[in-house]
Design a protein that fits this description.
Keywords: Signal. This is Nitrogen regulatory protein P-II. By secondary structure, the protein is an alpha+beta fold. The protein has one domain: Alpha-Beta Plaits (2-Layer Sandwich). The chain has eight helices and ten strands. An eight-stranded antiparallel barrel has the order 1-3-2-10-5-7-6-4, surrounded by five helices. A two-stranded antiparallel sheet has the order 8-9. α5 runs antiparallel to α8. The longest helix has 19 residues.
Length: 236
């Protein structure tokens, strides 16, 4: 059951109870994501969960999936991710495994592979699985450092005024073809939908967007926004 999946965010997504070694000040790691269209979403998730050991291949420290709940590009949209502590580990995995052409047979029948993406962290983040808002941005090269600083300031600001426990990840894209070349991804990570709603109520207040969010908006063009439900099914 080896040599199959790999994927994000993020990027990212591990509970504090599952792995203190990963959660305690993550290094600037990287993730590879397999974007698929599941023919039967529930059955597909059940199958990859049963075969979670496949996500441990080639040095990944964690792996799981994210189901798109809103903003879908197609029905049954889900990504399966692997997270690595360095780009070296991730590229070594790619060198050893042809993810596109060597899928695990029974699982490959349950989905249509769309594309693969790679994301490199731009800031530290404590990864926790949950309910997430994923935004993709086109950021001019001379604005990228300021954009990361603005997202970091937004996270700090929101934590102070809302009292909500959440995390924000930022990652840049590479090796993903025409789908996501040159994009930067932000990932708002909360425990559940209600918590995400309360967080966004703080951002979208009655007098307009929170100033710290406005600053980020001025530095980049948002090109995509989705709500995802994510879970880690393998942790080293």
């Amino acid at each position: 059951m080896k040599n199959i999946f790999f994927s994000l965010l993020l990027l990212f997504i591990i509970s504090s109870s599952e792995s203190s070694a990963i959660e305690n000040s993550l290094p600037k790691g990287a993730a590879i994501m397999l974007h698929v269209k599941a023919k039967d979403l529930d059955r597909y998730i059940t199958e990859i969960t049963k075969n979670s050991e496949a996500l441990s291949a080639a040095g990944a420290v964690a792996g799981g999936y994210c189901i798109v709940k809103s903003g879908n590009n197609y029905p049954g949209e889900v990504s399966v991710w692997q997270y690595f502590l360095s780009m070296g580990d991730l590229m070594s995995s790619i060198d050893k495994t042809d993810h596109m052409n060597e899928p695990q047979a029974n699982i490959s029948k349950m989905r249509d592979l769309q594309y693969i993406s790679i994301w490199k962290d731009m800031k530290e983040v404590n990864i926790k699985p949950g309910f997430e808002m994923v935004e993709k941005w086109r950021v001019p090269a001379n604005n990228q450092e300021d954009f990361v600083a603005a997202v970091t300031a937004l996270e700090t600001n929101l934590k102070e005024i809302s009292g909500i426990d959440f995390e924000m990840g930022v990652a840049f894209n590479l090796g993903s073809g025409i789908k996501e070349t040159d994009l930067i991804m932000t990932r708002w990570i909360t425990s559940d939908g209600e918590t995400m709603g309360k967080l966004l109520d703080t951002v979208y207040n009655s007098v307009g967007f929170l100033p710290s969010y406005n600053k980020a908006l001025k530095l980049a063009q948002k090109v995509n926004s989705q709500i995802e439900e994510c879970k880690a099914i393998y942790v080293q």
